[in-house]
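Incident log, support desk, overnight shift.

02:14 A customer reports that sequence design results differ from what the structure should imply. Their input is reproduced verbatim below. On-call engineer (initials T.W.) acknowledged and began investigating.
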């Protein structure tokens, strides 16, 4: 990485990351210290080791209930609860661990928590920037976005401005490289956890299907027995109690972890078999201002893992899943998944709530572009270094992060296609 050419765009990347990892981590640290007690008094940093020892059992119990996290990795556990006579030091905790502590121990409302989550997501976006370069337009946009979040978290504007003029030296670059590698290792581990979670469903499903088969055989043997007559009589009594048969309860959006895993597995298999990953990526561009995270995704399972990691998809929030089914018109999926949800009944009429009107406009453009129109846009915006896009979706995934499909640019695109 150190051997890469160091030019203005590389400097932009390091400067943004320097602000992110230094000022951002400190902002999260101070947020935790000022929101961790009910009396509103900040926790002194040198008392963190005492506090975390006292809260250990409560923290672990809360963590086990967290549908996104559940467990600490060994390295994280050792930082919080060092072996023998060691003391936890809050200054040694990274953004990931601070975010876990904030989510499970802090007293704050959803708006405050969202600022912390947004900061973590910017970090994830930059960690996936394989080129370690940011052009001027993107740098200005990302710097402004990050500055707004940091100021909302209490960072003084003077501090932010100092980073804009800071001399980025070799030590800064090495620090950023180390931080990026740590983030990527953590994200890869989490993606692996989700994939393992999905793969692990197969064996359990075989057991369930075998049990269902055995139960079916047993019921068939009972058909001509007195016991079956008794059961039939009981069933008739139930049917007369005023409860319609078709009102048997279906899972709500608050799914069990096993049902959530099965739903993810079914969804991923359906979309991967039909090679629809690029359409999903286009629909989700609004949640990934830096497209690098989406570019790294090679399967629908990994895409879903990213959504879960970013808290955009969960057992209690399936809006993105519903909306992508509707917009991609993959209604056949509903009859194939083993998980039946009430929301599936009227999904064609369901209002899209998780995707913006602009996202829908971009997606509709992708559905309508012909091969000749794709070539027209390639020539208009990429000449002489043509990209030769394989389809409209690959064009959109390239155009959108470059600002060529912004709301202001869409009219220009339409005019180009009319000529």
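02:41 Re-run completed on a clean worker. Output:
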């Amino acid at each position: 990485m150190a051997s890469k050419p160091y030019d203005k765009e590389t400097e932009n990347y390091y400067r943004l990351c320097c602000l992110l990892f230094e000022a951002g981590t400190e902002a999260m640290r101070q947020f935790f210290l000022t929101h961790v007690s009910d009396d509103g008094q900040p926790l002194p940093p040198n008392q963190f080791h005492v506090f975390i020892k006292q809260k250990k059992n409560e923290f672990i119990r809360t963590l086990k209930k967290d549908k996104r996290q559940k467990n600490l990795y060994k390295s994280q556990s050792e930082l919080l609860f060092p072996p023998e006579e060691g003391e936890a030091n809050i200054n040694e905790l990274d953004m990931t661990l601070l975010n876990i502590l904030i989510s499970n121990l802090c007293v704050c409302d959803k708006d405050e928590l969202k600022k912390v989550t947004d900061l973590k997501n910017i970090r994830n976006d930059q960690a996936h920037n394989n080129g370690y370069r940011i052009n001027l337009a993107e740098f200005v946009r990302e710097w402004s976005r990050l500055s707004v979040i940091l100021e909302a978290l209490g960072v003084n504007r003077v501090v932010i401005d100092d980073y804009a003029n800071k001399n980025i030296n070799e030590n800064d670059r090495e620090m950023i490289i180390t931080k990026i590698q740590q983030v990527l290792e953590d994200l890869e581990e989490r993606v692996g956890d989700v994939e393992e979670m999905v793969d692990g469903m197969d064996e359990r499903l075989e057991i369930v299907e075998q049990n269902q088969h055995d139960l079916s055989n047993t019921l068939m043997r009972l058909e001509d027995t007195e016991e079956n007559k008794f059961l039939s009589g009981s069933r008739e009594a139930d049917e007369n109690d005023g409860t319609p048969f078709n009102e048997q309860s279906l899972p709500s959006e608050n799914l069990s972890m096993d049902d959530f895993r099965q739903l993810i597995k079914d969804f991923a298999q359906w979309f991967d078999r039909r090679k629809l990953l690029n359409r999903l990526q286009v629909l989700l561009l609004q949640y990934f201002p830096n497209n690098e995270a989406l570019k790294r995704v090679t399967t629908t399972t990994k895409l879903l893992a990213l959504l879960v990691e970013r808290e955009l998809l969960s057992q209690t929030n399936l809006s993105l899943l519903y909306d992508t089914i509707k917009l991609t018109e993959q209604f056949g999926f509903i009859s194939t998944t083993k998980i039946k949800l009430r929301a599936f009944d009227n999904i064609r009429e369901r209002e899209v709530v998780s995707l913006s009107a602009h996202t829908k406009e971009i997606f509709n453009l992708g559905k309508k572009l012909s091969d000749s129109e794709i070539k027209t846009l390639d020539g208009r915006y990429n000449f002489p270094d043509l990209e030769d896009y394989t389809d409209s979706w690959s064009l959109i995934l390239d155009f959108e992060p470059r600002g060529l499909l912004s709301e202001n640019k869409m009219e220009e695109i339409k005019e180009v296609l009319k000529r």
